Structures are given as C-alpha cells and as structure tokens.
C-alpha cells in the first residue's frame, strides 16, 4: 500500500508541475499587457518600458515561469497588480468564505441526495422513484445562479427571512455568517444533489442485484436492513467519486453564485481579476483550483482503499 500511495503522490506532483506550466503559458500568451492596462493608453513608451522591466515582463516567458514557480514553492505568490498586496493574503481572505460555503453546499447535497437516491432504488419504478427522478432532472437542468436569484426573491424580498447578499464576517458571530451563506449554499447544492441522487440510485440498484443481497433477503432479512447494511456500503465507491468531484465543482462554481449574492469569496476574486487583467491573481486562483481537483482525486483514490477491502486484498 505504501508503494501505491508513493506512486500516486509522485504522479500528483508531476501533474501539478505540468498544470502550472500550462497555466503560466496560457496566461502569458493572452492578449493585452498588464503594464499597459495599469498605466492606460496615454502612457509614454519610456514609462511603459520602465514598468514592464519592474514587473519582469521584458524577460522571456520560460525565465518568468521558473521565477514564478520558485516563488510559489517558497510561498511567495507575488503581488496583485490591482490591489497592490500579496496574492497569498487575498486568497486566504477569500477562502474563509468560499470553503465554508462549499462545505455547507456539499452537506446539503448529501442530506438531500443520499436518502432520496436510496429510497428511489428501494421503490424502483414506483411513485417515490418517479418523484426522485423528476426532482433530480429539474435540479440538474436549472443553473445555480438562477436558483440563487429565485431564492433572493422569495426568502429575502418577499418574506424578508434571509439577507439578500453580503457577508458580515465571522467576527460578527456564527449565526449571522451562516445566515448569509445559507441561500447561496442551497443554490449551489441543488444541481449537485440532482446528480448525486441519480448516481446513488444507480449504484444501489446495481448492488441490490448481487447474489449476497438476494441471499440475505431470502433468509428473511428485512429489505430496509439489507439495503442500508449490505447494499449501500458496497455502493459507496461511485458515490464517493462524485462527492470528490462535486466539492471541486462547488469551489469553482461559486464564481457566479458569489457574484449573485455579493460574497467576498474566491469566485468573486477570480471574476474581478479576470475583468481587471490581474494576471498574477488569475494564475494563482486557477492554480489553486487545479491543485484542488488533483488533490481531491488523490484523496478519493485513498478513500477507495478504506471503503473496499477487496482493493486492499488485491494489492496484497
């Protein structure tokens, strides 16, 4: 097992290096010069050249990449062109909003999808299965930002129960902070809950047709116990795979939802950096998203070994 984990970890590091090179190359080849954007079109050529030299833009792309990479490895993510502060601080400030938002969304998605998917499999082709399929199809089809707008209209404008946007900060207390994140978390969770419901239903149905489950049922074990004790634990691998992917989707998908609810998270930072051509911030945000996806895939691979003892036995 240690050898397998070491190989996966080495593959993770190599993938991160390749992704970082690709990100830097794409950002470096984008049209538009950050120095020109900062100074404007009326800047003199001498002033523009001086700023380009100060920012290191006069050096070859490969030289700039290795300088940026060594800085990242040392924890120096550079300074934002727009805000004039270290990028590491900007990302850390936004993560305290985006990560709790994504965690709340994944919890809501699991609470809705797992019981609904299991019950749909238990009552295959029945009314519960039909309702679960209808709900999952609708939630998948509806964009998260549109759900967010509907939630604002209903719970903020009409009923006045929840804030329409903004984030008071964790210093204001857990209650106000969670209230500010609840509606955007629901907006993010519903489309993912639809996907997870379909995957859970399919995985449980497949396991329910296995011989050991039919044997347990034939010996008189109640269907509910057979479902939760035997079928569901063995159907967890595809469910865990989707959960790992969904967490990264929720982090990345927060771009639109955070702008709808005016949340100062990583998604809003990425949107503003893109609109302001802040290449340094854009590079680090995209690298963070990429590293998150790769790391979550690594964690899911390890979770397979914990969930399924057959994989561990096969390795031995």
Automatic annotation (TrEMBL):
Instruction: Show where the ABC transmembrane type-1 domain sits.
Output: 95-300
The membrane-topology field of this record reads: Multi-pass membrane protein
Keyword hit for Cell membrane: yes
Record-annotated membrane-spanning stretches: 9-30, 95-118, 130-155, 167-190, 235-261, 281-307
Write down the PROSITE patterns for this protein, in alphabetical order. ABC_TM1
Kindly give the Pfam families that the UniProt entry links to this protein: BPD_transp_1, BPD_transp_1_N
Q: Which domain of life is it from?
A: Bacteria
Q: Which UniProt keywords apply?
A: Cell membrane, Membrane, Transmembrane, Transmembrane helix, Transport
| Location in or out of the cell | Cell membrane
Q: Does the keyword Transferase apply?
A: no
Coiled coil spans: none
Query: What family, per the record?
Result: Belongs to the binding-protein-dependent transport system permease family.
Name recorded for this polypeptide: ABC transporter permease
Task: Give the species.
Answer: Rhizobium oryzicola
